[in-house]
Amino acid sequence: MITYITRRLVLALVTCWAISVISFIIIQLPPGDFVNSYIANLSASGSMVSAAEADAMREQYGLNRPIWVQYGKWMGRVLQGDFGMSMEWGRPVLEVIGDRLWLTIVISIAAIILTWGIALPIGIYSAVRQYSIADYIFTLIGFIGLAVPNFLLALIIMYLGFKYFGANIGGLFSPEYDLAPWSWDKVWDLMSHLPLPAFILALAGTAQLIRIMRANLLDELRRPYVTTARARGLQEWRVIMKYPVRAALNPFASTIGYLLPFVVSGSIVVSLVLSLPTVGPLLLRALVAQDMFLAGAIVLLLGVLTVIGTFLSDLMLMWIDPRIRAGMHG
Amino acid sequence: MAEPILSVRRLCTWFHQDEGIVRAVDGASFDLEPGHTLGIVGESGCGKSVTARSILRIVERPGRVESGEILLRRPDGSVVDLVKLDGQGREMREVRGGEIGYVFQEPMSSLSSFHTIGNQLIEAIRLHSDMSKKAARDRAVELLTLVGIPRPAQRVDSYSFELSGGLRQRVMIALALAAEPRILIADEPTTALDVTTQAQILDLLRKLQAEQGLAVILITHDMGVIAEMADDVVVMYLGRDVEQGPVETIFHDPAHPYTRSLLQSIPSVLAEPRSRLRTIEGSIPHPYARPAGCPFHPRCADAIAGRCDRSLPEPTHLGARHAVSCFLYGGSGVPALPAGLLERAE
Ligand SMILES: Nc1ncnc2c1ncn2[C@@H]1O[C@H](COP(=O)(O)OP(=O)(O)OP(=O)(O)O)[C@@H](O)[C@H]1O
Ligand SMILES: [Mg+2]
Asked: Quick check: pTM over 0.90?
């Protein structure tokens, strides 16, 4: 048990380190160093920076030192929660990101829960009633769900909502709560706005998970332990829910790990279309404006969160699979 | 002669596939007497497992019991035809496990690896009784003791993958006996095990049968196991019973050419070392291409041209309990339609 967790933890830490290197490379990508672009930015807005000030800044950020020292200094600051300044916004990166990170997490988790909630029963039904009309219909809808880009779906739903209900269904808050401080009412408002974007984000993943669940379960339904359970005189639906579904859920649980980045990257374009206050649109803007500290910070934070999510799903897998648990005792 | 506890009459179980109909069981009949062991023997694919599943009504789709009767005699003398029951209904579910226990061919994968063996045993016990969880657990430990599992009180909480093949098969037997059925169907219970374990499991089955007065249907393709265990024997070929009788008769006075070649294919300790084992000529026909007439005639050395390839022999009695379906012993036949015509007639 301990070795398994340790191994997963080490793997997670290595991945986080790799993500930090990539984020650092992203920050370094634009020609010239950060102070150059900072000065250029400031002079564009009229204020001047003296050469001495520029040198002091270079010293502070270690820009005239070898690249790995720069990385070390940057990491050191990041670990203290200092992600640097956003050039475009002229404010600390963390402040700019603000609530958006948590809203991204909330919406991603909502999308994943919804994905599971839809995919699980449909996948079970499709497997148990393989080749039934409903199975074919679900398969068809599933393929459409896979093929239609979700931003298109977002546009269609927004259009329909506007045309037939006169409602603007973009955003995550009603206008009166948009800038209001957090309160239970605001949380409630968020909850009521969540289903639609979560649904749109969930759709592509749902189609995929239905296929996975259906295939897993079809495999399991053929196994002898299912027949044994039937031969005991158990009711058919109890046979299916207790044994093969349980077994098919196992590989299914590990899908959280890859669903997370899938949902987060999928959310960028959808967030733009639906004007959701997530980090997606912010990242896009930062990249366009070459606001590298902001872009690097977002990539780093999303990456690390994904690693944490994967780690948690590994722990969950361990918790639900007696074979892994037993293998770890011995 | 006691009244049979289970009678299978002209059972037909077919699989309807896109490519055609597989007649896995096609007119099998036999009787199981109380307290006896009935051996069903035949080559791989002759429909032994499908017959067993038909009795429990757990043939998986696209298979279906097409016709025939499966008569189960209850202690009160009443007789129920299992074919007429709703396969999913309560009465049939009570028969499964409750009156007929089933031990499977594959001990390695016949238990769920996500549930402890205790969990599965307690489920089986409580399905057919209204025992409390606590009492059922005690009973589960008792059952594990009965089937000879060491340290049963600890083993009840282990998972199947923590047990060896032999222990798993013992757990399977415990599961089959959980609700104290009167009939036990053991479908090749030892095929997947090594020789020593095989002997232990057979000993256990014999012991349990004596202690509990079980009637056992033992399915195997091993004539040696039959010789050791069975009171009566049914020889199956391509979904039909071709010969049946008491075990001594089948071994000492086999009538059907197929039974004789089966017996000749047993390796004998007395044979010349490295002498070739007799094998049965030809191979089992493809399930879609059943031969017309007697299904065995293409492989039969004694086939009567113009007779065996034309009509299907009906059982002829050679003794009070010895019957054979073969034209060599006279007997009537039903003219066989070419397979294509039959399909169209349905
Ligand atoms: N699910 C199924 N779909 C289609 N055909 C099947 C199915 N199950 C069994 N059959 C067919 O039924 C026939 C009899 O199979 P069965 O499993 O009863 O053989 P068996 O006598 O038990 O053989 P073995 O000794 O290998 O266990 C075979 O020809 C097989 O192809
Ligand atoms: Mg079999």
From this structure: no
